[in-house]
């Protein structure tokens, strides 16, 4: 499986620290630890490409290469999250999403076109996803078992 893991852009605002980062020579102040954790949890035989879109964008070659796009997002990243899902679906790619935003409002991710919801704590639900995604029908969420909630 070839997975393109993307961390959506944060919109410019007072809280994005754009001016500070420019002065300090930084490209990002919030490392995307959630999607990096997902990368570490995926099977070792999967090929992975990762981009933090706040630092550098993926290329059209990355989109052509991948079988699935995996996104992790916070609510503030909604505009780019939505654009990425729509682009992936237009290109015929499967889309799996997780993180605080889809966990809080999964119906929005589904409305944008996401195929797989990997909700709650990724350390538990990501392995459920890659073990069962061919069996479970798309859009049936991977969530924490009741005895763990």
What does it look like?
There is one protein chain. The chain is α/β, with parallel strands linked by helices and 149 residues long. It has one domain: Rossmann fold. Helix content is 39%, strand content 17%. It is built from 7 helices and 5 strands. Strands 2-1-3-4-5 form a 5-stranded parallel β-sheet, sandwiched between helices. Strand 3 (68-72), helix 4 (78-90) and strand 4 form a beta-alpha-beta unit. It is globular and about 50 Å long. The model has no long low-confidence stretch (mean pLDDT 91).
Draw up the topology in text.
Blueprint: E1 2-7, H1 18-24, H2 33-41, E2 47-52, H3 60-65, E3 68-72, H4 78-90, E4 94-98, H5 100-104, H6 106-112, E5 116-118, H7 122-132
Parallel strand pairs: 1-2, 1-3, 3-4, 4-5
**What is the succession of H and E elements?**
EHHEHEHEHHEH
The coarse overall form would be globular
The N- to C-terminal Cα distance equals: 30 Å
Given this structure, which CATH class is correct? Alpha Beta
CATH architecture: 3-Layer(aba) Sandwich
DSSP summary: helix tally: 7
Could you tell me the radius of gyration in angstroms? 15 Å
């Amino acid at each position: 499986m070839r997975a393109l893991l993307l961390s959506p852009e944060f919109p410019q605002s007072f809280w994005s620290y754009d001016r500070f980062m420019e002065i300090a020579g930084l490209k990002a102040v919030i490392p995307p630890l959630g999607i990096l954790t997902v990368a570490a949890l995926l099977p070792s035989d999967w090929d992975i490409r990762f981009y933090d879109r706040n630092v550098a964008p993926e290329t059209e070659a990355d989109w052509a290469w991948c079988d699935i796009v995996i996104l992790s997002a916070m609510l503030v990243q909604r505009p780019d999250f939505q654009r990425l899902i729509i682009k992936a679906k237009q290109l015929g790619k499967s889309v799996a999403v997780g993180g605080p935003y889809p966990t809080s409002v999964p119906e929005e991710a589904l409305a944008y076109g996401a195929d797989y919801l990997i909700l709650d704590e990724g350390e538990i639900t990501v392995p459920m996803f890659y073990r069962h995604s061919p069996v479970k029908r798309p859009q049936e969420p991977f969530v924490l078992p009741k005895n763990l909630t």
